[in-house]
Amino acid sequence: MQAPQPTTEKPELLAPAGDWDCVHAAIENGADAIYFGLDCGFNARFRAKNFGLDDLPELTKTLRTRGVRGYVTMNTLTFPSEMPRLAEVIEQIARAGVDAVLVQDFGVARLTRAICPELEIHASTQMSLTSGETIEVARELGLARVVLARELSVGEIRKIRAATDVPLEAFIHGALCVAYSGQCLTSESLGGRSANRGHCAQACRLPYELICDGEDRDLGDVKYLLSPQDLAGYAAIPDMIEAGVSSLKIEGRLKTAEYVANITGHYRRAIDQAVRDGRVDMGTTERQEMELSFSRGFSPGWLEGNDHKRLVPGLQSAKQGIVAGEVIETKRNRLRIRLRCDVALGDGVAIEVDGDADETFADPRFEGGRVYDLEVAGTPAERAASDQEVWIGFGRGEIDWTRIQVGATVFKNDDPKLNRRLRKTFKRTSAEHQRTVDFDVDAQAGKPLRLTGTVAGTAIRVTLESSESLAVARTHPAQADMLREKLQRLGKTEFTLGRVDCRIQDEPMVPASVLNRLRRDVMQRLTERVQSVPDRSIDRKAGAALLRPIDRSAEPTGDDSGASPCLIVLCRTMEQLTAAIDSGVTRLYADFHDIRRYRDAVALGRRAGVTLGLATIRMQKPGERGLLKAIVKHRPDLILARNLAALRFAREASVPAVADFSLNVTNHRSAQWLIEQSAQRITASYDLNRDQLMDLVDTVPASWLEIVVHQHVPMFHMEHCVFCSVLSPGTDKTNCGRPCDRHVVQLRDRVGAEHTLQADIACRNTLYNATAQSGAEIVAALLARGLSGFRVELLEEDARQTAEIITPYRQLLRGEISGTQVWQKLNANNQVGVTRGTLEPKRNPLAIL
């Protein structure tokens, strides 16, 4: 890639804020905008401190005064029964003057748009918009910005920018989720804690063992197979600007104010340099400072494309700080190392030791403490520099020295002096980052003094005149330097003086008292204007209309399953497809990882006279439209659309489509929007338990919904490829040799469950729950409400197992057995067992979490 040319287009720097200290840390270190959550729910960081609704007036006033935009995260899925309360929250957000809301749920976006059209809507990264085609569909929701998936490279972002004019926001620093945001069902599946509801349990940070072709594969110290290093994308900033990214986002609403100050300050300087010079120079000291605030190890993430080994080395999963050296010798509560970074008294140090990973949360065991004494060349010292050999001493009893081995890695993980310096940036009494005010002075003898103040970069302007006309000066007529000197006395305010243009005529005398009073009055008016809440319309009636259930007697959507109960079976092999047809199933989906086999599947379906749909990939990235063309080429009866681009493509190709679970429908207005996009039916989200599912069912026509009642929940859906990372010498799909075609792989978790890992045609991995779940016991209640579409999803079953699963479900829909009997039959036939799973109304987290 050629070096980008310097540009004057400066992207917004967007920082996280979990509390007031974080707000001030972001502002004083140069953030252009912050994003934050509310403690009333509806945000994807439930564990963050968050802000109360009563905080909004003061918070938005603070932000407007400082020229910083504020975005509220409402990026969770919402149930119909919650929407009346959500409508009230949206109204308060709009009235408080919040600049934008971040939204995952299509229905929430529609509700926000109806209540306050002037309030900006930003599509959260959890909306899973990964291509220009998906964005162009979603823009119909009234989106003002799209937060892109973290799995996109700069080159792919550039292609998206060329395909849409919707402003783009991209992550530039912070923790990376191994699964696509909005597509991770792990916490929900394993413990009833939905990541899409803000309750992520971070199962990706736990250790896993690899089983390859039925045998354990020894990977040595590589245990954290799903835990990516943190994103540090500073080097890519010039390319991101050139690619057309409008906002660069720092992750970290659960982080400290010191972290926010540290990372925001470094990226403020990096962006300014990129705009000025077309490059970013980040030295070792700056990088180490960022790592000390929080780091699992830095990488460019996906910005440079896929490098699966670099992204997930698999050696650790928690904060490690920076490498200080390796143990050379230990003696009397001290260890000797050659430093690879500066160390001082009071610094935090951790020493990596051998131990059982499951004794701690998602991390190898460490011994550590504070540097109690420091010796360089036999002399006590307060600090030591990199490359010096030193003895580091600890407090008595602080370290279990029997566990420390020569050669162990030593990390510096805390620097009190750095933290004190960072705190000073946001605990000071005067503002560091100030807004610029430009003045225009009109001083003419015989006329009132006129002063115009303008907040730079805005249309906020105030003009005032003195009450008396200016006299002709006898000795010292007004001069521009004198006027500027008086005007710059803005005190400890949030403003600083910028340009001063003076128009002086006829040698006027400008008394200091007159100019000072006029300056104070202009600044007071400017401040009031700056702090004023934008004038917005609130349409409660329009919002209330969206809260009402949709008429359940509405006309069917064109689905040909009819009103009688219909069993739909999703097959992942030709063997399963044949067995399902032999079992009497007349409606099927083929979800093959090798879509070249779709031709055979469609031919089989036609010979058997059944309705056959073909499933699309779950995420669509730039350049993958050809996969949709390949599906349509086989002329299926319908398409199981797993992203918005597939839904639009099916409509354009005049092929019926069913919207799958990955479109995350949990309320009636998101369902309605997808029906308006020509979906014949909607697959209910896997984030719904029994009560929440009934909440959805009772608000939409029965013909709209398809319910998955048997499946192995697809927990992690990842751009990261475990096959490539640990079973290949390659780094990505161009050189990996496709071990996924030759090996059957499971990942064993800490409680011994062996979860199946598979790769799709786009080389994305999905980890499926080892245990199938059954919702058979709620089928009777769904039938009573008029539902007719019930799906069974197979995974690795052979022909016999396929028939054993299908038969009891067919009996259930014919009324021959109960849901409990189905569950009993399935467990009798299945050595692994079948759970009632996520459809249960109350669940307890499993030990893995």
CATH superfamily of the largest domain: Aldolase class I
CATH architecture of the largest domain: Alpha-Beta Barrel
Could you say how many structural domains there are in total?
4
Helix/strand-derived category reads alpha/beta
Percentage of residues assigned to helices: 25-40%
General description of the model:
The chain has 849 residues and is of the alpha/beta class. The protein folds into 4 domains: 12-176 and 228-280, Aldolase class I (TIM Barrel, Alpha-Beta Barrel), CATH 3.20.20; 321-427, Elongation Factor Tu (Ef-tu), domain 3 (Beta Barrel); 435-531, no CATH class; 562-714 and 771-839, Alpha-Beta Barrel (TIM Barrel). Helix content is 29%, strand content 23%. It is built from 25 helices and 41 strands. The protein has an 8-stranded parallel β-barrel with strand order 1-2-3-4-5-6-7-11, surrounded by 4 helices. Strands 28-29-30-31-32-33-34-40 form an 8-stranded parallel β-barrel, surrounded by 5 helices. The radius of gyration is 31 Å and the shape is globular.
In short, what is this structure?
The chain is built from 25 helices and 41 strands. It is α/β, with parallel strands linked by helices. The protein folds into four domains: 12-176 and 228-280, TIM Barrel (Alpha-Beta Barrel); 321-427, Beta Barrel (Elongation Factor Tu (Ef-tu), domain 3), CATH 2.40.30; 435-531, no CATH class; 562-714 and 771-839, TIM Barrel (Alpha-Beta Barrel), CATH 3.20.20.
